[in-house]
Specification:
Layout: H1 2-35, H2 65-80, H3 109-117, H4 127-152, H5 156-189, H6 194-222, H7 224-242, H8 248-262, H9 265-274, H10 279-289, H11 291-307, E1 315-317, E2 321-323, H12 325-332, H13 335-344, H14 351-356, H15 360-377, H16 408-429, H17 433-474, E3 477-480, E4 483-485, E5 488-489, E6 493-499, E7 502-504, E8 507-519, E9 522-524, E10 527-534, E11 537-539, E12 542-544, E13 547-551, E14 558-559, E15 562-564, E16 567-569, H18 582-597, H19 599-613, H20 615-630, H21 639-667, H22 673-696, H23 704-721
Parallel strand pairs: 3-6, 4-7, 5-8, 6-8, 7-9, 8-10, 8-11, 9-12, 10-13, 11-14, 12-15, 13-16
Antiparallel strand pairs: 1-2
Helix pairs in contact: 1-2, 1-3, 4-15, 5-6, 5-9, 5-11, 5-12, 5-13, 6-7, 6-8, 6-9, 6-16, 6-22, 7-8, 7-9, 7-13, 9-22, 10-19, 10-21, 11-18, 17-18, 17-21, 17-22, 17-23, 18-21, 19-20, 19-21, 20-21, 20-23, 21-22
Keywords: Cell projection, Cytoplasmic vesicle, Glycoprotein, Membrane, Neurotransmitter transport, Phosphoprotein, Synapse, Transmembrane, Transmembrane helix, Transport
GO molecular function: transmembrane transporter activity
Organism: Salmo salar
Length: 733
């Protein structure tokens, strides 16, 4: 009887060993396929090492013996111990199996392995299901992220980042003003025609339009900090080069690329900063951040006022290379961008970006840095960051098989192609049904706001210039049929018109002619030496035995005139600076300074009320008041009156811009935030170009059309803004 039991036990044990070996060998084959799709940390599968309990293999059936045989088999296995899969690390084939440490498995690795081992063969999830899971993850992450920011608090870290990103926003404000300030000098230095002047004025907006779209899309794929560093570097390099290049085309090219670089700053800066702000601080502190754009305008105005009129700050090497004071101003305007780059290198990437892209450890470390920095600054260094695990969003596997023998150039080309496809897909996503209505409404609001604001802010200075010209023209002195003999002119001649005059043996030596016009006049045996002229012309005149030495009176200065036995020696080559607008230049810089400073009250009010009355009320209310203020423009008939109205309009409208920036950040999820913001900001620059072009065409013709255009656009924008969803009190998506 006992021998029978022993034989039966040995038989059962042998059968179990054979079954286990067959199962293990089968699991190895399946596991090789599973390895390729599971556990990104250890690159190995755990499903193939799991073995069923011994009760998965029933003992020999039969009456009362089956229970005994099962227990006896277990005891026999425990006694022998030669095949303990829980203690051994390798088998005869040196294959790793259960018992050897494999790293930390992913939560979904066993599911993936079971699915494959089950024979369904499914390697990719249904896209609708995948997007649903991602959306659920994003919602969970948004709620948890808000809780974590509450624990981190608002303190030293956020204020440090505030000033760093403020420098980047300041650089954007400077860029807007640079070309407008240097244009009066640059157009003379480079001999620009009216068409070229217009292109130079608009080229920065075109560059910023491209830059906003490109860098906004890239920031959602490669990171906020990295994208901002790249775009600021491009701006710094080409702004620096633009201060030295001599030709108009190269200067235009440098300013275009400078605009492309700085164009990404606004979308990235606001998205970057918002992802470090808790819900109750977000609206207020994003509005405070807007003040740096105002500071950039003040900096540019002050530097232009202090540098450009000082013509002594220049040097030249012959007539080919000239470095005048306006180029010094362009060089000084690079400083905010360079300072922003240096400061930004000390700051971390947005943790929300890392978590959105499945990088848990990187995001956790940055949030811990925020927490510890704030707690130490508040005098509580003992407080420990209590968060151990943060929700991350499921990622789509984006594998690119490039092979081992592919060239480096081909590899980078494939990577860029893949990146382009990702950015394009992200851009199209903001027009999906979920965001389509919001996107179209925001496009309309951004367009109307930009069209009216930029159109009027450029129209104001042009109107002031027009009023100044009208006043200057009213003081013009007219001389008719005068006869002048043997007189030496060595003083400035300005704002005069001489008709049918006769000049015999006269000398014009070492003088400046400003807005001088000679018509139907005779110059006989006269001598012109060292003459610098601006807006001065000789029309239908006759020159007999006259010598021109070291003057710029040739070609475009002498029109339809007759030269008899007259000589030009050592002409002043190239284009010369216009010295007629010294006072006007000071006035333009001063007006821009006042107009920029006038937005300070609006910035303060919007920052204090943004989280109290909401984004929509702030946006719509400010737009309505700005619309009403437009009708006061019809009463601005004097220079001082136009300046006052400019300050009023700027101070009121800035609140709507702040609300629009905050609203744009909060309406889109983190994986589409800078893409949407960049696209809307690019549309803003396009509307600015259209507004400037249209409004400028009515300068000196009528005030009614620009006023009606601006008021109508603002009214439409305020109406559409009320149709948008309110985001106050909501967590950041």
């Amino acid at each position: 009887m006992e021998d029978g039991y022993q034989n039966k036990t040995a038989f059962i044990k042998g059968a179990k060993d054979i079954a286990k070996e067959v199962k293990r060998q089968a699991a190895k084959k399946v596991g090789r396929g599973v390895d390729k799709m599971t556990d990104e940390y250890s690159k190995r599968s755990y499903a193939r090492f799991e073995e069923d309990d011994d009760d998965d293999y029933p003992g020999v059936p039969g009456g009362q013996d089956s229970g005994y045989n099962q227990g006896d088999s277990q005891a026999a296995n425990d006694d022998e111990g030669g095949h303990s899969d829980s203690t051994e690390g390798h088998d005869e084939d040196n294959e790793i199996y259960e018992g050897e440490y494999q790293g930390i498995p992913r939560a979904d690795s066993s599911k993936a392995a079971d699915s494959l081992a089950g024979g369904d063969g499914q390697q990719f999830r249904d896209m609708a299901q995948f997007e649903g899971e991602r959306r659920k993850d994003q919602e969970e992450l948004a709620q948890q992220y808000e809780t974590i920011l509450q624990e981190c608090g608002h303190g030293k870290f956020q204020w440090t980042l505030y000033f760093v990103l403020g420098l980047a926003l300041m650089a954007d404000g400077v860029e807007i003003f640079v070309v407008g300030f240097v244009l009066p000098s640059a157009e003379k230095d480079m001999c620009l025609s009216e068409e070229s002047k217009g292109m130079l004025g608009l080229i920065v907006y075109l560059g910023m339009m491209v830059g906003a779209f490109v860098w906004g899309g890239l920031a959602d794929r490669i990171g906020r900090r990295q994208s901002l560093l790249i775009c600021l570097s491009i701006n710094s390099v080409f702004s620096f080069f633009s201060s030295f290049v001599q030709g108009y085309s190269t200067f235009l090219f440098c300013r275009l690329l400078s605009g492309v670089g700085i164009g990404g700053s606004i979308p990235i800066v606001f998205s970057y900063y918002s992802e470090f702000l808790a819900q109750e601080k977000r609206g207020e502190h994003l509005s405070w951040l807007c003040m740096f754009w105002m500071i950039g305008g003040i900096y540019a105005s002050a530097m232009a006022w202090a540098i450009i009129p000082h013509y002594g700050w220049s040097f030249q090497m012959g007539s080919a290379y000239q470095f005048h004071s306006w180029r010094v101003f362009v060089l000084v305007c690079v400083f905010p961008s360079v300072a922003a780059i240096a400061s930004l290198t000390t700051m971390p990437e947005s943790p929300r970006f890392f978590l959105q892209n499945g990088k848990h450890d990187e995001g956790w470390m940055i949030l811990k840095q925020v927490h510890d920095t704030n707690m130490r600054a508040k005098g509580h260094p003992e407080k420990v960051f209590s968060v151990t695990t943060i929700k991350t969003v499921k990622q789509m596997d984006e594998l690119l098989d490039m092979g081992g023998d592919i060239s480096t150039l081909r590899r980078y080309k494939l990577k860029l192609t893949s990146l382009f496809q990702q950015v394009r897909s992200n851009f199209l996503a903001i027009f999906n049904p979920e965001y389509r209505r919001t996107t179209f409404m925001m496009m309309a609001v951004w367009f109307t706001m930009s069209f009216s604001y930029y159109g009027l802010t450029v129209w104001f200075p042009d109107m002031i210039k027009y009023i100044q010209k009208q006043e200057y023209a009213s003081r013009t002195k007219f001389f008719t049929k005068e006869r002048v003999e043997h007189v030496t002119f060595n003083f400035t001649l300005e704002n005069q018109v001489h008709r049918q005059g006769q000049y015999f043996n006269d000398k014009f030596i070492n003088l400046k002619m400003k807005s001088m016009v000679f018509e139907d006049s005779l110059f006989e045996e006269c001598y012109f030496e060292d003459i610098t002229s601006s807006r001065s012309f000789f029309r239908n005149c006759t020159f007999i035995s006259t010598l021109f030495y070291n003057t710029d009176l040739f070609q475009n200065r002498i029109i339809n005139s007759k030269l008899v036995n007259s000589t030009f020696l050592h002409n002043k080559e190239g284009c010369l600076l216009d010295f007629t607008d010294d006072n006007n230049a000071y006035m333009i810089y001063f007006v821009s300074f006042l107009g920029t400073l006038a937005v300070l009250p609006g910035n303060i009010v919007s920052a204090l009320l943004m989280d109290k009355i909401g984004r929509l009320r702030m946006l719509a209310g400010s737009s309505v008041i700005s619309c009403v203020s437009c009708f006061f423009l019809s009463f601005g008939s004097t220079e001082s009156g136009m300046i006052a109205l400019l300050c009023l309009f700027g101070g009121i409208s800035i609140a709507s811009w702040n609300a629009l920036d905050v609203l744009t950040v909060e309406l889109y999820p983190s994986d589409k935030r800078t893409t949407a913001f960049g696209f809307l900001n690019a549309l803003c620059k396009l509307a600015a170009v259209l507004g400037i072009s249209i409004f400028q065409s009515f300068v000196g013709i009528t005030k009614a059309v620009p006023i009606l255009f601006a008021a109508g656009a603002l009214a439409a924008g305020s109406f559409l803004a009320l149709k948008l969803p309110e985001t106050r009190g909501q967590v950041l998506q």
